[in-house]
Automatic annotation (TrEMBL):
Listed name of the protein: EF-hand domain-containing protein
GO molecular function list: calcium ion binding
Source domain of life: Eukaryota
Residues covered by the EF-hand domain: 24-52, 73-101
Entry annotated with the keyword Calcium: yes
Record SUPFAM superfamilies: EF-hand
Pfam families found in the cross-reference section: EF-hand_7
């Protein structure tokens, strides 16, 4: 994990850069799809859902909720990804929902840069790395 400074435009630029975003998403999808059937089951998605850290960072309080509560949260997140409710998440659903969540984070962040603790390898971290690399290119 590392502490990075980001604002809404960091996230918007990343999501709107179709190529960079699609590559990151496809790459993550392939790694999560451990049985390589092109679909993510709930157990395959669980690892990704855990990195979202929705529960732990809710209201800025670092809490460890009980397992039943967590299972409920992960289930409802999975349902959010599974747009056609067929019990699995395909690449298109994964991409759409990841994008939606990133934009929701961007709305929450707003235009003032904020410091966030980011997991290595998270999409937000990729957004920050992308911004650094374009800055260097300029
Ligand atoms: Ca699979
Ligand atoms: Ca589905």
């Amino acid at each position: 994990m590392s502490v990075e400074v980001l604002d809404a435009s960091t996230i918007h630029n990343f999501v709107e850069d179709e190529e960079a975003f699609n590559v990151s998403v496809a790459d993550r999808f392939a790694r999560l799809d451990t049985d390589h059937n092109g679909l993510l089951s709930f157990s395959e998605m669980l690892k990704e859902l855990q990195t979202l850290r929705v529960v732990e960072t809710h209201f800025g309080i670092d809490v460890k909720p009980d397992p039943a509560e967590l299972a409920y949260v992960y289930n409802s997140l999975f349902v959010q990804f599974d747009h056609d409710s067929n019990g699995t998440v395909d690449l298109e659903e994964f991409k759409e929902e990841t994008k939606r969540m990133m934009l929701a984070v961007a709305n929450g962040v707003g235009f003032l840069p904020v410091q966030m603790v980011l997991e290595e390898d998270s999409f937000l971290k990729k957004a920050v790395e992308r911004e650094y690399s374009t800055r260097v290119a300029l």
